[in-house]
Amino acid sequence: MKYLLMIYGNQEKWASIPPEVFPAEVAKQEAWNAKYKETGELLGAYGLADAAAARLVRRADGQPAVTDGPYLETKEYIASFYLLDCESQQRAEQLAADLPWADQDPVELWPVLHESPVNDL
């Protein structure tokens, strides 16, 4: 079964990490990515740009209508997401708990309810 993991962040959080420590924190995440890619349980890992780069897109008169920023006014935003393929929810919970920083910030775990056949192309 597939699961989506999401972690949240904000500029204040990233700025609080001393520059000399940041490369080691990134290396911890890359080690987690490699570990679970090797087991076949990590299908993809994606870090998102700052919320200031996000756009809200609607359709108006058949054309894209684009505005700046995410829709929700919030202090935190989705910083990264991971797609897993695990044998059970318990296993997905174990991987989520093993994420670097999971001892400091929660990780959202969502079962993937439906997968489009387009993914098989």
What features would you describe in this structure?
InterPro entries: Dimeric_a/b-barrel, YCII. It comes from Catellatospora methionotrophica. The strands form two sheets. A four-stranded antiparallel sheet has the order 2-5-1-6. Strands 3-4 form a two-stranded antiparallel sheet. It is built from three helices and six strands. The protein is an alpha+beta fold. The mean pLDDT is 89. It is globular and about 45 Å long. Helices cover 27% and strands 32% of the residues. It has helices at 11-15, 22-39, 89-98; strands spanning 2-9, 42-47, 55-60, 63-68, 77-85, 108-111.
Strand content: 25-35%
**Overall radius of gyration:** 17 Å
Treating each run of at least 4 consecutive H or I residues as one helix, how many helices?
3
What is the general shape? globular
Give me a quick take on this structure.
This is YCII-related domain-containing protein. By secondary structure, this protein is α+β, with helices and mostly antiparallel strands.
Main attributes of the structure:
single chain; 121 residues; four-stranded antiparallel β-sheet; two-stranded antiparallel sheet; globular
Helix-strand layout with pairing:
Elements: E1 2-9, H1 11-15, H2 22-39, E2 42-47, E3 55-60, E4 63-68, E5 77-85, H3 89-98, E6 108-111
Antiparallel strand pairs: 1-5, 1-6, 2-5, 3-4
